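P.,

For your records, the input lines for the assembly:
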Amino acid sequence: MPGSFKTEAVVLRSIRFGEADRVLHLYTEERGRVGAIAKGVRRVRSRFGGRLEPLFRVRLILHEGRGDLCTVSAAETVHPHARLREHREGLDRGVQAADAVLRLFDAAEPNRPAYNLLCQELALLDHSPEAATRAQALAFRMKLMLAAGFAPELAGCATCGEVEAGGLFSPAAGGVVCSACEAGAFPLERPGQEFMVAALARPLAEAPTAADPALRQADRAIVETLEHHAHVRLRRVA
Amino acid sequence: MYAAPVSRLIAELSRLPGIGQRSAQRLAFHLLRASSEEAAALAEAIQEMKRTVGLCERCFNLAVGPLCRICEDPRRDDDTLCVVEEPSDVIPMERTNEFRGRYHVLGGALSPIDGVDPEDLRLEELFRRVEGGGVREVVVATNPTTTGEATALYIADSLRERAPSATVTRLASGLPVGADLEYADEVTLGKALRGRSSL
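Structure tokens returned:
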């Protein structure tokens, strides 16, 4: 229904459009994914300034017309994440987080845990640039999977429930599997599995660490599970 | 609704950036009313541009021939290189009359979300130019956007390793002349404050 509404949002992506406009992909607190057009935002004297750049957390007034895109009427900064933009690792991780939300949450329906998780991740990267590690990025993805309903089964065999399962991960089954159910599985050794369990259990700011081989295995488990069940292809976390 | 050639022209014009269906119709009817010479001059200008304009072999700016006008100019400073995203970014830099060095056009900005990685830009060519010696300062003039900042940080990190003798600088950020403080966003105002100068 046409009209205006207020919402808080994180700008995930911004695409040049027309002479001076941008099309924004927003993840909003109250409506999930929303597409919007910001008119004249690329002009130096635009009243929006840099507030509609990706990774800004903003409070918006959006006008909903008859088309697919809302129009941004007003924008106020909640958190600019200014420090994050000054460090290459922090900026790369922030963009990776936005990319994961962009691909995983494409419906116009709210998911408060996912929204809060993204806000926490960006605030953490902004506050502590040294937190921008591969392990931390993977821990964020694990929690995002949980928020999206795709958390892998790590306590027992995802196929038969055998408690002693371990050492193998099956993206199709959506978790670790025992040797009897190993079809299509790849190795996920104990350090990798423990990393994934701890990533789900601990707060983002206390993300676990692990050696590179364990992180590579966890990365593969996350990417292939999402590819199989959510039909989205995330880039590997380098 | 229209004769087939008019419909075709409207369809072609409406593919141009910033031109919608209605503007395309207006332009098509203007051309219909114009003399044959005027219409032919426009068609010839488009054809000539497509036939003759390419990219400079050295800096990837627009060029008629192997090198662009700026790379051919012996009065420009060889020791300062300004890095921009697109050929269209060279023009506003030249209009300032403040920069007398040479350019390097990347062909875009890093954007993993859009699948633009370092190998998709002319970054390796830039690093080889700077490594080749003679460049004292690299001015990174990518757009002050998230992708532009990511590209600037990537260039600074890479040149620190590959050409440590070159200084990498970034265009200053701040308030546009004539703007109101109350409309400035926090990042821009913060940068303007940090970059303040004594009067």
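Two observations worth noting. The interface with chain B takes residues 12-14, 18-19, 44-45, 47-51, 53-55, 77, 80, 82, 85-88, 91-92, 95-96, 98-99, 102, 235 of chain A (CB under 8 Å). The domain at 3-79 of chain A is CATH 2.40.50.140 (OB fold (Dihydrolipoamide Acetyltransferase, E2P)).

Regards
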